[in-house]
Every structure is written in C-alpha cells, then in structure tokens.
C-alpha cells in the first residue's frame, strides 16, 4: 500500500512538473505543436501582447472552407512591460495593413485573437520596444 501511494505521488509530481516546465520549451517556438501544447496546458496563462504590423508575411495557405488565401505572419511582439515574444498569427482572407498596431490575446504561443488598436492604447514600455519614442 505504501509503495502504491509513493508511485501515485511520484506520478502526480511528474505531471505537475511537466505542466510548469513545458512553457520554457514552447516560448518563442513558432511550431503548431508548441501552440497546441500551450493551448491545452492549464499552467499557461492568457496575456496581451502588442506589435507593429509590417508589409511582409511569412507564407500563405489556402483556406479549406471558402478557398480564400490566408496570410501567416511571424512577428516580434511585446508584453505591456516590454518583454519580447515571437509569435505566429494568421490574417484570414486578406493581408494586414502595414504599420498598424495590433493587440494580440495569447495563451502561450497560441494566438486566440488579435485586433487593431490606436497608438494611445499601446502601453508605454511596449511602444519603447517597438521603437516609438513617447514623452
């Protein structure tokens, strides 16, 4: 009985360790596997990051539902405190307008949604990292 209890505790501790260690390996990883792992990992919290769009997309893919072209971007984003994150996100059916500010809601490497925001809505530390001087 004691051995069984120790094994169960060991399995639980291993599971908990995996939950908290995997984000170290998935951070800034642009693979689909990293996105899925972060999406299902309850230890990974949602956060908002900000970026400035460019006129360069990484690649396109055909949308299987309506046969339109989707644009996949790989960009550097910043948390409100200015920490850097590299993310992959998709614009469905059209290219993004360059030099616009986006706020992305992420769960680790998984971008849950993005929206265009004004310059005033971007936190000061993120703006500084984006190269925008604020007074």
UniProtKB/TrEMBL annotation:
It holds the Pfam family DUF1093. It comes from the Bacteria. InterPro entries: DUF1093 (IPR006542), YxeA-like_sf (IPR036166). SUPFAM superfamilies: BC4932-like (SSF159121). This is YxeA family protein. It comes from Vagococcus humatus. The lineage of its organism: Bacteria, Bacillati, Bacillota, Bacilli, Lactobacillales.
